[in-house]
Here is the input.
Amino acid sequence: MIRATAEGSHAVQPGGRRVLVAIIDTGVDGSHPDIAPNFNRELSRNFTVDVPLVDGPCQEEPDRSCADPADVDENGHGTHVAGTIGAPINGLGIAGVAPNVGLVNLRAGQDSGFFFLQSTADALTFAGDNGIDVVNMSFYVDPWLFNCPDNPADSPIEQMEQRTIIAATQRALDYAHARGVTKVASLGNQHTDLGKPMTDGSSPGLPLGTERTRTVDNSCLVLPAEGRSVIGVTSLGPSTAKTDSSNYGIGQADVSAPGGFLRDLPGTPQFRTPGNLILSAYPRSVALANGYIDANGLPTTALMVRDCKAGVCAYYRYIEGTSVAAPHAAGVAALIVSQFGHRDRRRGDGGITLAPGQTQSILERTATDHPCPEPRHVSYGNAGRPPSWDALCEGGPSLNGFYGHGIVDALSAVTLRPRTS
Here is the structure.
């Protein structure tokens, strides 16, 4: 869909090793055979510690420790993101959108999938201080899905907490932006028009069991996706239809990218078939712990793939959502920096850089325009969704709530020639 192929962008610009892409996520399995060649151990960091209350007993983890090294992912989410961005062309498994770039693990997410303010702000600050060119952020800052500065449904302490999250997250985003970091984020999977949110039924996420339904409005922000200078990405299925669960919004969607769809292709006989989803790297230890492979390393589900070469086996999993759409856009951003960047004098390793605003401009103007569907009011009943999932696409072909400025296009981005068909 985005022409990140051997005959497409890879033939022109497969990415430069001097370009660094950081994955702010649950971690990256640096030993994965289809990530290790591009994995930057020197810069990778872990900014969080597992919390038994939300992550489970430490002694039950694969390494029996709450303090994981910076090359471990005990969730799988971050490794999948990293593979989509930069899995190398090595005859094994998959190739990433930018298969020659350096991959940096800036772990800020818990094994359970929670992302807290301190660790995410620390990761963004580190990215700004250490020459990172692009960061991928497929998460929202917990414990609030929507951060509201003065929602009357919240207590004064809760309001203060949300105002703090808004201010501190934006400060960290601004810090990274001023130091040359292009920031890409998933818009989320709550099937919500972020320009017209009405309810939030999942906050606060902690303490566990305290979530409640509250009324929200457009003053409430999903962060980091709705932060300044962040490229927000919606998710598409293989037919280019917006993924049923994908958030959207004419003021929030900057670009769109492949993210899979549980039931998108015409005639699909059942949900969650591989042809509708996104395949990327997955840690063997997590696959084994979740029962996705057996003790012999053989997949137990069609959604897991094993690929072996010269006695080395690597594992991959099919998933969907805006979390896997964002890294497609982040990979294209990395190709843009590789193609048009200049020497970064702040780095002593010969690194290159490109102003984030310029990177975003190229990403958006080379994206393929896509009009709203007709009718514009879309029902996802054929995917088994209730009317509350219906979505209204607003805007024109060059900018609308489902596709933003269009579907990212890797070949157009590195040649600066907009796609004509």
